[in-house]
TrEMBL record:
Phylogenetic classification of the source organism: Bacteria, Pseudomonadati, Pseudomonadota, Gammaproteobacteria, Pseudomonadales
PROSITE patterns: ABC_TRANSPORTER_2
A UniProt-annotated Pfam family: BCA_ABC_TP_C
Molecular-function GO terms, alphabetical: ATP binding; ATP hydrolysis activity
Protein name: Urea ABC transporter
UniProt-listed Gene3D superfamilies: P-loop containing nucleotide triphosphate hydrolases
Keyword Metal-binding: no
Domain of life: Bacteria
Bilayer-spanning residue ranges: none
Length: 241
């Protein structure tokens, strides 16, 4: 598989604190990569460096061989990267279908955008809510609308920060299935602390600890790694598949 995104010595410091330390990270086209780690491990900060929410103090990040480190989020998004932060970025005053149509319309004609919106509505299983205002939807449904907006814009790479946060068990399972669906068309990076959710979506897992990559491999491999278990000890139980 060809390399889609790569960082070399990427990091950021706040005063004398090295939140992310010189990380070398390679993501191949078509992957579903999960970034995990205990609280304060640096995984969310690393995500913000990839998405442009933070500017690195050292190192570089390249997407499809183009340097993106230091670019603002909107410019990174225009390159074909869909970004979902922990807070849903949706238009609460518009209905579900219109949110999807607007997302598709960023890079498609009006006719194509309408067709994509209808198709996406079915893929996220919200057809019966097509004309409901997004602001009136439940938390999980609003999250799915945003995932649908990412789907509709047809990005090359999708960056998701804790997409299952605050969801019920059934909502988590549906979100996992939706992310797998997204991965059939796009490369996906998921930052998550919920190990059960990671188990559901599998893929390659990269473990952060103290601002650096501690381990990498399949879900089974990293959860059996003594160093990973030590990092999580007392913070979160690691369950095997």
């Amino acid at each position: 598989m060809s390399v889609l995104l790569q960082t070399q010595g990427l990091g950021v410091s706040f005063g004398g604190v090295h939140a992310v330390k010189a990380v070398d990270f390679t993501l191949h086209r078509g992957e579903l990569r999960c970034l995990i780690g205990p609280n304060g491990a640096g995984k969310s900060t690393f995500f913000k460096l990839l998405s442009g929410q933070l500017k690195p103090t050292h190192g570089s990040c390249h997407f499809q061989a183009e340097r993106i480190s230091g670019l603002p989020p909107h410019r990174i998004a225009r390159l074909g990267i869909g970004i979902k932060t922990q807070t849903p970025s949706v238009f609460d005053g518009l209905d579900v279908l219109e949110n999807l149509r607007l997302a598709a319309g960023r890079n498609q004609s009006a006719a194509q955008a309408r067709q994509t919106a209808e198709q996406t509505l079915q893929r996220i299983d919200l057809s019966e809510h097509r004309h409901r205002l997004v602001g009136d939807l439940a938390h999980g449904q609003r999250q799915w609308v945003e995932l649908g907006m990412i789907l509709a814009s047809k990005p090359t790479l999708v960056l998701l920060d804790e997409p299952a946060a605050g969801m019920t068990y059934q909502e988590v399972r549906k979100t996992a299935a939706l992310i797998k669906e997204i991965n059939t068309h796009s490369t996906v990076v998921v930052v998550e602390h919920d190990m059960e959710f990671i188990r559901l979506i599998a893929g390659t897992v990269t473990v952060f600890n103290q601002g650096a990559i501690l381990a990498q491999g399949s879900f089974a491999e990293v959860t059996q790694d003594p160093l990973v278990r030590e990092a999580y000890l007392g913070k979160q139980e690691i369950k095997h598949a």
